[in-house]
Structures are given as C-alpha cells and as structure tokens.
Amino acid sequence: MKKLYTKALIAVTAISAILYSCGKDDAEEYIPLPESPVVLDPEAEPHPKLSDYHFFEGELKNLEPAYGVLPYDLNSSLFTDYALKKRFIWMPAGQTAHYTTDGQVPDFPVGTVLIKNFYYENTLPNNTTIIIETRLLIKKAAGWHMANYVWNDAQTEAELNTTGGTKEITWMHNGVEDSVDYKIPTHNQCMQCHAQNDIEMPIGPKPQNINKMYAYADGSMNQLARWKQFGYLDTYPQQILSTVNWEDTAQPLELRVRSYLDVNCAHCHTQGADCGYTPMDLAFANSITPENLGICREPVDFVSGREEYIVSGQETANSLMYWRMNNTIQAEMMPPLGRVTIHTEGVQLIEEWINAMESPCP
Fold first, then answer.
1. Do 199 and 339 fall into the same domain?
2. Residue closest to 181 by CA, chosen among 160, 201, 166
3. Could you list the pLDDT tens digit for every one of the 362 residues in the chain?
4. What are the start-end ranges of the H helices in the chain?
C-alpha cells in the first residue's frame, strides 16, 4: 500500500516542462496535468458513503489512494486496542497549508480532509484484514467537522455513522490468538479528544509527529519535504523539535516516554483541553520539565486511596499514572476512551521509566 499518488505522480515529475513533439500531431502529444478525482463540497453535509468521495482507486478495501490523496504516518501512534492505522491527507487543487509551530497542526485550507482508517490484520478464522472504521476530519469555513464511516462485513463499503457501536474482533497478535470488543466512538466521544478550547481540531499531523521518512512508491522521502514538493505545505524550519517512535529502544528512555504520552494523553492533558486543569502538561514541547510529566505532583482529580503522586520515582505502586494505565475499569482507567484493553507494552514503558528514576518522591 506504499503507493503514493498513483502513476500520475511520476508523470507530473517527468513533465516539469510542457511536452510537445514537432510536427502536425503536436496537439495529440500534449500530456495534461492529472486532476484529483475526489468529490467534495466542504460546506455540504458529509457524503452518506465513503466511496462517494473517490479517495481510493480500485476495490475500496485496498485503500489505494487516488491522485492527490497522500499517505502519511506518525512517529508514534495512538493506541486503540492494537488496531492498525492507515492515514491520508487530501487538499483541493491550488491550496496550501501554512506552518505555525512544531507542536501545532499546520493552518490547513478549507476543503482539507484528513483520513484515518482503523483495521486489524490476521483476523480469524480466515487470516484476513478487516477495516472497522474510517474517520474523516473535513475543514469547513467555520472549522473542522468530523465524519465517521463504519465498514460492512463484506468490506465493500463504509457508511456514515454518528451513534458508535461495537465490533468483535479475533486476530493473531504476536503469534497468539487475541480478541477485543472494539468500540466505535460516537460523535460526542470524538469531540472529547478532538477539542481544544471547545474547538474541534486534528491531533496527529503536527510537524513534530510527521517529521520522518516515508517509503513512497518512488522512493523514501521526508514527509514534510513531500508535502512541500506536492504543494500541500508552504514551508517549514530545517530544525524541528520532533517526537520519536516510542518503540525504538535506541532512543533515550525519557524521550520515548514523552513521545508516547504526547500522542496518547496530551490531547486531554494540556492547556485548553478536557483535562487541562490537572497539574501536568503532557504536550511534547512542555513535558521537558518533571512537573509537567507529573513527577512528584499530587493528583487533584482522582485518588484511588493508594497513590500519593501522579508519578513517583522507583514506585509504580505509588504512581497514579501507572495504576490508571494498568486498569480497564471505565471509571478508573486512562485514557477513558479509545480502548477496552490494557496496552501492555505502553505500561511496560512507563514502568521502566519510573524504575529508572533516581529516587522516590519525598
């Protein structure tokens, strides 16, 4: 699925000058610039079916992007019960996003669509790939609008859904059979994570998160450079304070932790967000300080009766962050949405980080 914009991209890069041949057949030799087949009126209601947008070529379930629909990825991905993601972005012709800061999404033009597909591979009994939902964020004149599409069992179409639901999935996870009752969010639940100062907005495509190489069909390239090359981004600084892949053990432990907390927790635990009142700020640029990571900070919103601090060095049993992540009780777990299972590897990361601290809190 590493295809980029279809074969038309190669045509674009090959015809930076207008191509004509000499002679009477000049008009027949003209190669026009490709056009995106995407159908979108950002001010209209969302289409009832995913296929109505023409984001993808061929069989819909293959998620092969049409021209102008660019795939992208994040340094670290949000955990949603081990579901995998395929992300794409599309903008209207001639429109460009503007860089703001490393830790904020670019100023996207009206008509931009962010496309995120949630799926599982190796599902049983037939070892197939099942796409559960495709979430769209559409930039309207008044701001971002969310539209969620739930796929049918035949994997031939996804229909607009606002009420959420549950999908039972059984799959082979790291060679072991696993299962989950995957929760499809309602519109209001999406708002709980995708709102800052009561304004809907994207979370993932910040320069700090997409400043990485991507294996496109025509070779690997930095994603920010590709967006600029294609006209989707005006400019960006040469040096960007970037997150890392939290699974990359070659990276410093605290940098991995801060990257994990940024993508999984900061959309709530930062200024202006749903849990911005808590005594920490987990946005990557702000979590450089121990206080914003919750180290030796007393919780103000939840006390289980055992933990004195949000994070206490060398004491997972005395660290509320660890306890809430290692929990599946709805009223007690964190994050409270987007999962019904424990992210075992994420909990292990936090445990390793806490145990590596020099001393407990006083």
1. no
2. 166
3. 434 444 444 343 433 333 333 344 444 565 666 899 999 999 999 999 999 999 999 999 999 999 999 999 999 999 999 999 999 999 999 999 999 999 999 999 999 999 999 999 999 999 999 999 999 999 999 999 999 999 999 999 999 999 999 999 999 999 999 999 999 998 777 766 767 767 788 999 999 999 999 999 999 999 999 999 999 999 999 999 999 999 999 999 999 999 999 999 998 878 776 676 778 999 999 999 999 999 999 988 766 666 689 999 999 999 999 999 999 998 899 998 889 999 999 999 999 999 999 989 98
4. 8-14, 26-29, 187-193, 207-210, 223-230, 253-265, 320-325, 344-355
Please give the residue range of the domain that contains residue 123.
35-230
- The candidate with the shortest Cα–Cα distance to 77, out of 206, 251, 216, 259, is 259
208, 283: one domain = no
Check whether residue 221 and residue 272 sit in a common domain: no
Q: Say if residue 264 is in the same domain as residue 219.
A: no
Q: Both 121 and 99 in a single domain? A: yes
Q: Are 205 and 265 members of one domain? A: no
